[in-house]
């Protein structure tokens, strides 16, 4: 683990806290038997992607956010690592059938989600994507936990908004700024269809899935009045 700690220190030397998630996603691909990595935080009822090793990993993070399902969602719910060893068949494929289908279509056949935070509070997840089915063995799991702990420390170090000045995710200070359109779109759906927040978010997700798009893409168009959402 000393070698891993040195690699983390070298990669993060002089890097602002807000850039740590993306940097560590890239390092995860170098240190672990995975082809992609992403970091998502809990907010607005769905995972908010704040860093990724590449566009493919970012896309899988957005897929889980749109579906409201996948290893990262389960890891947040249980506040425990979720190791999907084989998305092509068996228990893991049955547990998240739609995510598994989309992941394998993207060339990913295993996914491992490590919670950020403590044993009682989950801030989000570090998500790792493997090209082949397989285990994340003890040494690799320890490395993944160390990377997740480093991301957690960086996030906790970010400036927080003054009490009462904004939503609980405001302390991210722009880290997930491109996701601000999601709560705006949810509010628009609530007003348009007179539904509660949870149902509005479900409708946004359902519309995105039906159109083959991400929830973030649909929210972007709604805020710009390019899309008017009816009940799905």
Describe this structure in words.
By secondary structure, this protein is of the alpha+beta class. It has two domains: 2-156, GAF domain (Beta-Lactamase, 2-Layer Sandwich); 180-223. Helices cover 50% and strands 15% of the residues. The protein has ten helices and five strands; from the N terminus they run ααββααβααββαααα. A five-stranded antiparallel sheet has the order 2-1-5-4-3, sandwiched between helices. Strand 1 (36-43) and strand 2 form a beta hairpin. It is globular, with a radius of gyration of 18 Å. The termini are far apart.
Give a brief description.
Helix content is 50%, strand content 15%. It is built from ten helices and five strands.
Mean pLDDT over all positions = 85
- Give the fraction of residues assigned to helices: 40-55%
Q: SSE order, as H and E?
A: HHEEHHEHHEEHHHH
Total helical segments: 10
User: What is the C-alpha radius of gyration, as a whole number of Å?
Assistant: 18 Å
Termini separation comes to 50 Å
Keyword list:
single chain; 232 residues; alpha+beta; Beta-Lactamase; 2 domains; 5-stranded antiparallel sheet; 10 helices
Give the topology, please.
Elements (H helix, E strand, L loop, with lengths): L1 H11 L7 H12 L4 E8 L2 E7 L2 H13 L3 H8 L3 E3 L5 H6 L1 H9 L4 E8 L4 E9 L7 H19 L24 H13 L3 H15 L3 H9 L9
Antiparallel strand pairs: 1-2, 1-5, 3-4, 4-5
